[in-house]
Write a structure and sequence with these properties.
With 291 residues, the protein is α+β, with helices and mostly antiparallel strands. The chain folds into two domains: 88 residues, no CATH class; 165 residues, Aminopeptidase. It is 32% helix and 28% strand. The protein is built from ten helices and 13 strands. It has a seven-stranded mixed beta sheet with strand order 7-8-9-10-11-6-12, sandwiched between helices. α1 packs across α6 and α4 crosses α8. The longest helix has 15 residues. The two termini are 16 Å apart. The relative contact order is 0.20. This is GNAT family N-acetyltransferase. It comes from Pseudosulfitobacter pseudonitzschiae. InterPro entries: Acyl_CoA_acyltransferase, BioF2-like_GNAT_dom, PG_Glycine_Bridge_Synth.
């Protein structure tokens, strides 16, 4: 299903024009290679590093050649799908994660029929809970309750998401690219999720639910609302992010309950001339990189 050529495949958020504009709004200087791939530049422990995040890489040799015309720094290459980059002299660094991708349909009945039964039951519960659901572009305010709640949750659970200025930059630079869905009990917000739009794909970016929201299945109702809204507004795919069954089994079940497919990413490879002597060891890790 996913072995297809653009524009029939999901567009990775981190290769989109909207993401590039958000980076520039935050003072960063990404480079769009002539092959269309977006290259980021960072410093890790003071060392300049170049990155090709979620890159399609239809011609890895060409992309690498174009990147090397710009930088000789260590190059981290993260293909959007499993790709053997050992022929280009890259070394495996991080094995592939898995991603949940939902194919959206204009027929909401058909999309609803693909929901898992327990997910559908929670949706019915949310629909009967008397919640008020609203959606609108994300306000350009760093003190919005969803952004603050997500930041606090990141600290509490020890993970990292985009910095708030980058999320706000995405909303500010591309009109209606960041759509906020909120559920209310009376005047009180009990759940929210943020969808980022880029081409024919939308991405589930941030979600948060209060105790009252969980009791009312508010997040399930919001996700269903977002699915229908995205399908009605020209999107073919909803990227639900990584599926981590060990670290966050509950969230993984929630994502897969939508009927999403699980597809492997391409892991992370490193290309850097000082590491060339290690190339002969690449075969040890190739099986893990190419499921």
């Amino acid at each position: 299903m996913f072995d297809c050529a653009p524009p029939l495949c999901p567009t990775p958020l981190m290769q989109s024009a909207a993401f590039e504009a958000a980076l520039r709004a935050c003072g960063q200087r990404p480079v769009r290679l002539s092959c269309g791939t977006l290259m980021l530049r960072r410093k890790v422990a003071g060392l300049p590093v170049a990155m090709l995040p979620r890159a399609a890489l239809p011609d890895p040799a060409l992309t690498l050649s174009l990147a090397r015309e710009i930088t000789r720094a260590p190059l981290l290459m993260s293909p959007a799908r499993p790709t053997d980059l050992s022929a280009q002299g890259a070394l495996p660094l991080v094995s592939p994660a898995r991603q949940a991708i939902l194919a959206l349909q204009p027929d909401s009945d058909a999309m609803r029929a693909k929901l898992h039964q327990k997910w559908r039951n929670r949706l019915k519960h949310g629909e009967k809970a008397g919640l008020q659901v609203r959606h609108h572009p994300l306000p350009w305010r760093s003190d919005h309750w969803l952004l603050q709640a997500d930041t606090a949750q990141q600290r509490a659970r020890g993970y990292s998401n985009w910095p708030v200025p980058l999320t706000l930059g995405f909303a500010a630079t591309t009109p209606r690219a960041a759509i906020l869905f909120e559920a209310f009990q009376g005047a009180d917000p009990v759940a929210a999720l943020l969808i980022l739009r880029h081409g024919t794909t939308a991405t589930y970016h941030i979600g948060h639910t209060t105790a009252a929201g969980r009791a009312a299945s508010a997040h399930t109702l919001l996700m269903w609302t977002a699915m229908r809204w995205c399908a009605d507004h020209g999107h073919d795919w909803l990227d639900l992010g990584l599926v981590e069954t060990q670290r966050n089994a509950g969230l993984a079940r929630f994502k897969l309950g939508t009927g999403a497919d699980v597809v492997p990413l391409g892991g992370t490879w490193v290309h850097w001339s000082p590491l060339r002597p290690l190339r002969r060891l690449t075969w040890l890790d190739r099986k893990a990189m190419i499921p």
